[in-house]
Automatic annotation (TrEMBL):
Annotated Exocyst complex component Sec8 N-terminal domain residues: 31-127
GO biological process terms on file: Golgi to plasma membrane transport; protein targeting to membrane; protein transport; vesicle docking involved in exocytosis; vesicle tethering involved in exocytosis
Function summary: Component of the exocyst complex involved in the docking of exocytic vesicles with fusion sites on the plasma membrane.
Cellular component per GO, a single term: exocyst
UniProt family annotation: Belongs to the SEC8 family.
Entry keyword RNA-binding: no
Domain of life: Eukaryota
Exocyst complex component Sec8 middle helical bundle domain segment(s): 262-461
InterPro entries: Sec8/EXOC4, Sec8_exocyst_N, Sec8_M
Keyword entries, A-Z: Exocytosis, Protein transport, Transport
Source species: Oopsacas minuta
UniProt name for this protein: Exocyst complex component Sec8
Amino acid sequence: MASQQSVLLNAIRRLILINDEEDRRDEQVKLERQLRETDLELQGRVTENFDKLRSVLETFNSVDEKVRVSQVKVATLRNNLRDCKILLRCKRDDLQRLWKEQMEQKKVIELLEEVERMKAIPDKLDALCRTKHFKTAAESLVESIVILGDRLEGVEALKDLRNDIATRKETLKSQLIDELHGCIYFKAPQTFTEDELTPKHDKLSTLPSAISPMKQQSLKSHSRSRSQTAVMLEHQISMANLIPKPVEKECIEIIEDVNNLNPEADLPNYMAILVEALYILDAIPNALEALKSRMLGEMKLIIQRSSTEVRERAEKSGELSPDQNQQSLLKMLLDTAFMKYKSVARAHQIVLKRLSIFEKKMKIDNLYLYSIVNVWNDIQRVIMRMLQDYLDTSTGQNSSTLTAVDVESRDINSFFSKKNIHPRQSLFHLYNSTHSISIMSYMRESKGAIPSLLEGMVDDSTMGHQPTFLQEHLCTPQFRNITIVYQPLEKICRHIELEEMRVETKQEKSNELGVFLSTFVEDEFLVKIKEEIMKKVDFLTSDSQRVVKDEQSGGMHKERRSNKPLLKSCVGIEHALSELKFLIIDLPNYAKDLLLIGQRALETYAKAAQHLYYDLTHVGGDGVNGELPCVSQSHTWAVNNEEMRNHIIRLPMWSSLHNTTISQSNTDQTTLEQESWIVLDQIGSLEIKKNLIITSVANIRNLGLLHESMEWFSNKIKNLLTEVAQAHSSLKSSEIAKLHEVNSTISKLSDHILITLHLEVRMHCLHYLPPAVMRAGNTNEEEAAIEDVGIKEFNRDLCSLEEQLALQLSDMKLRFLFDGIGHLMATVLINTGKKLQRVDGFCITRMSVIVFLLQQNLTNITMSREAELDHARQFYELMRSTPQALLTFATEQEYNFTNAEYEQALAMICKSPDYKGEFERIQEKLREHFDANRSN
């Protein structure tokens, strides 16, 4: 419309501005044309919207009619209201009375509904408790108490219900406390897995065991170097303090899903609900008191249940045997119990975290929380008490390590003290039965009950009677059980240290278990081990036991691949020292102390072996009445004669026995001949009397036994020390070197004994052969072909030596003893001939008989013909020739003798009166011949 007006105004304005008539007519024509166009457009639109226009007009008419009717009704209603107002003013008092009656009836109905709801509360509580929705039950209970004490306070008919609700409140408190105990001590060990119990801050798990105060005390007690250790400890502890504490999300309110049919599936949330329910019931102080008062008893019951569990498991698998000391079951018990303890500690952490939230956020007054340190302290005390039983320790209630400091009013000494309690006797009392705990727990769970300290076997803990451990042990109590549990206990101590390190508390963090473990090992275990080993060494090295053979040598023979016996003392002490190796593996922190024990035992045994060696080679004099003790000549040479000992060590057989290679410039035969001349040169003009040789067959046999034992023992100790050094690289080389040094003395003793036996055989030759040769020089025709008594005795002596030593020594060692004895005999027979006054045919015949008898006997001993004795026999056969014939023999080299032997033969022939004066002449020719051969 506005646009049309603007168009019209514009047209009028233009007409006013036009003065020309023609222009006016043109403008008129234009306007008429536009008007016609507008009319046509209007007519078209009216035609198009005619139907709509008609309906709008009809609607408008109907609305207008309704408005007029409504105006009439409103006027009528206004008149009616005016009439009602007049009537209400007349009935005001009656209406007020009726309104008050209505309100009273409404209040009565509401109270009746409340009463009906209160009557349903017990059933509702029972249903909620059965489904274990305790928070909702607590809220309903508190709400009902508020309603009964406020809105329904004056209803005397609800007195019984009020008393019932109050009783149910106390019952629910006890049930919640018992349920919380059940979650902590029964459900937590069955629910939490190893991953959930492993600390997230386990960076300290790689720290060495020195971080423990127990080990620090051990280091101090053994006067070990503290400079580097202290620095390392300070660094490790400072690193531990830098570990971030795990941050848990603090949630003040826990929402309980009443539709959840298994609220215990999420145990941490379930325990949080229990704590919140206790808070709702205002039972937090009572719950805390119950948790703290029952904690120690519950910890002890875990040991009982774990013991029963391990026993039943072992019985099912057949591992439990009454005839064997099942020490592995003790380790299994410790592992099982500590897994439960870690679960219990984890549960306590959840409870304490929830309680601390209430303390901080809701400002609960007089709330004295215990700390996780209290939990671990009680765990340590119970483990210590168990260890006292299984280790059979003498450190009881009087030991300072067990008088632990208790942050509460409890006395740990009274807990561990033995009381003479006389309980009432019951005919069918099963509480002390081996399987009673597991059976009663099963019966409770089958009935839906929660195991509690208030019922059955464990009610003693709440009545002031301390529960006792099971009387039947899984293994024999003994101090050696520490070897099974030491390393697991070390891990437990480190775990406790790490757990306590996370806690910021003013309470002193103790390490009673570590101190107990260290004190027991140092003050009891090591002392007893030392006493046992030293007593064993003293017993086995006593006079009555020194040369007793191993009674169970069959197993040792199999191990050594030899049928030769060993000294019982040697085998026994080797077993004892081998046990030290396993002790070092089990107690690596005390390797140095155990090595010192082994060193002392080894030194004691080495001294005893030295004394035994001296006693076996003792041949005269006892140091009494002015008589000097005297040992055999072979012992003197083996120990003091370095030249003789070095020559024997260079023998080919010696290097074969010791698996060593020695460069030799001479042949075996030449070396043996050299040995013979060295022996004779050392003897000189000394006569080997009978008091300078070992005549006791038993001593000879025992010398062989001692050598074999010392050699075996030395090799075993050497291998043992090598294994210990490889297994414990932390040990200093000086600590092992001391033992190697002591062991080297035993090895040297073994070599000295073998050299002594080697020389003893030669001393017997030097004792018997020279007198036999001298007797041959005085032989007549009748005695020439008769066996010499001395040679007969000598042959028996050699056979006896070979027979006794063959029982003790290997074939190679026996061969070493008799190897070269033919050379020595031939050398002695030839060299002793110088002392004969005359050499006639009867003497030569007698010497041939002697050589034959010696050769026959040696063949039986060495199992080979001794050709060197043929050389001696041929030497004496030269005595039948003349000096000129001897010169011819030497010139033609018909017989292979040395220059000295030819000259000696010439001197012996010229002792005959028939050839007196020819010695110098023939000797000159012999020397000229020898010089000519030497120049060629």
